[in-house]
Amino acid sequence: MKTRSLALLFVFGLVVIAGGLLLPQWMSYLFTIAMGKGLVVLGLVLLMRAGLVSFGQGLYYCVGAYVAGMLTQFVGVTDILVIMLASVAVSVAIAAIIGLLLCRYREIFFAMFSMAFSMILYGLLVRNQFLGSTDGFNVANPSLLGWTPGAEASSDLVLIVAVFLVIVLGAVAWRYLKSLSGYAGEAVRENEIRLEYLGGSVFRVVYVKYIIAAGLAAIGGTITALVSGHVDPEMAYWTTSGEFVFIALMGGTAHVAAPIVAAVLFEALRTYAFAVSPYTWQMILGFALLAIILFMPSGLWSLVERFQNKKARKTS
Amino acid sequence: MSALLKTVNLERTFGAVTAATDINVELNTGEVVGVIGSNGAGKTTFINMVTGYIQPSSGDILVRGKSIIGKSPRDVSLAGVGRSFQVPQLFQELTVLENMLIAFGFSVDRKLSFLKPLRSKEKVEKAHAVLREYEIEQYAEEVVSTLPQGVRKLLDIAMAMLAEPGLMLLDEPTSGVAIEDKFLLMDTVMAAVRKSDAATMFVEHDMEVVLRYADRVLAFYDGRVLADGPTQTVLSDAKVQELVVGHHLDLSENEASTSKESAHVRT
Questions:
Q1: The complex's ipTM?
Q2: A306-310: which pairs have CB atoms within 8 A and are 24 or more residues apart?
């Protein structure tokens, strides 16, 4: 990435943080949640580019959230950086084990197996009284390098960290997609036989992506837990994973910014759908997804691509 | 010194059907071998076994003296056996250049880099040089699925050759290619193959192509090797003409015509 692009990204990040802080509390809360979900979906998109749809990202989202909750409540660790690192480490360790089995499967089998593992976690948490069973438990406010903000400022702290992570991890993911490992995903989706005959390991390509996606999902879960101050087993339930797939389809897989933008739009859409029609808000979301699939099968990001192509044609 | 490729009593059955049996073949560096046989004779089964795509039911396959039985296509490829396919196996929705860059990454660099851009100036230049060698450089920015079969075949072979395999197996390189382009395609491929000094085995139905490019021929019939020897000898064999070629082949006439065409193409 060029220096100019990095500088622009940095300025953009500052503007987003400033904007987020100026928003009313409920909006900045939703925005922070969207940042967290956007990161989960970013990981999902990496898998989708390799032709793999995971219906089980809720597993790592929930693991990240519970690690954050347990550290703050039971261990007394509140530093947001330590919590993030611990969440990612635990998720990656679990993904490294589950991935050994899961990455041998494709298509519906991959989707169903990934969902099965997240439902196993859901079942374990629901039966665990110590972790609050179906109610979950509260998460204490985070601190940063010894600084403990007040109740209101702590959500601002999570917002700043969330936007920072989205910008940094988004830039890294963008660079990753331009690398051999990034292109290898498309190669796996297009033709595994050719990749093997080129001397590439299809398993390794998929395994690495699965682990990266787990790490990103853990960060997303941690952000959600810290900003909402609560975790519960619903985070591992299949509908949560389905929500991530919904956002991924909504945004498309063409660019790393697509899942982030889609996550923000999804949260906005859901909030307003609920306000407009509290009992049938899911129907509004359903129609929205239907419209996107029918008119923009490559997701909302295809609008940006259309605009870019139009501009390129005009220039030429 | 052990042979580059040696198969010992190779056999493959699919249930009650014996697709290949009693195959004992040796191949050495620099040899160009044509594999002929009617449909179902066992040619592709043989190629698939040698490249790890399917495992033999019994027998052994030795590459430079080492058995490759039980190895995956990837391991066989890393052992120095490359292959192209009857239906080109490419990354259809990517461009020709992207296909080539991915092939460079896996076959030449052999390092799954995470942040290093695939499209560096140096790599793009190298990829263009290979595409130029195979005379498909003008298609570099085209998406593979939109290209004619001949171009796809060349790209498939070019990608397989990047790893500089000691043994290259070409499964019907001219199938689906227009008659007038067959020799052009084979000239391009064989020029690259000869430059690399790889032993080459190609499955072919067109006897003119076999006669022109193969030094040696393996004739398959009913899952067995019916004849193995110099091209002229095998193709003039009465049994091969009856069971494999299906008609009488006038070799003197063919030789004259192919050498004439060869001279025409090369000038």
A1: 0.84
A2: none
Report the SS3 class of residue A104.
Answer: coil
How many contacts, defined by CB atoms under 8 Å, are there between A and B? 96
Residue A78 maps to which CATH number?
Answer: 1.10.3470
Whether A175 has its CB under 8 Å from any CB of chain B: the answer is: yes
Q: Determine whether B205 is exposed, middle or buried from the number of CB atoms within 10 Å of its CB (0-12, 13-18, 19+).
A: middle
A291/chain B closest Cα distance in angstroms: 26
Taking the CA of residue A221 and the nearest CA in chain B, the distance in Å comes to 24
Do strands B17-27 and B5-14 pair parallel, antiparallel, or not at all (unpaired)? Answer: antiparallel
- The distance of A27 to chain B (nearest Cα, Å) reads 35
pTM of the model: 0.87
CATH topology of domain B5-89+162-266: Rossmann fold (3.40.50)
Query: In whole angstroms, what is the distance from residue A209 CA to residue A99 CA?
Result: 10
What does the domain layout of chain B look like in residue ranges?
Answer: 5-89+162-266
Residue B118 to residue A180, Cβ atoms within 8 A: yes
pLDDT in tens, A110-126: 999 999 999 999 999 99
A182 touches chain B (CB under 8 A): yes
Give the structural domain span for A176.
3-251
Residues of B within 8 A of A178 (CB-CB) are: 117-119
Choose among A184, A194, A199: nearest Cβ to B90: A194
For the segment A171-202, what is each residue's pLDDT rounded down to a tens digit? 999 999 999 999 999 999 999 999 999 988 99
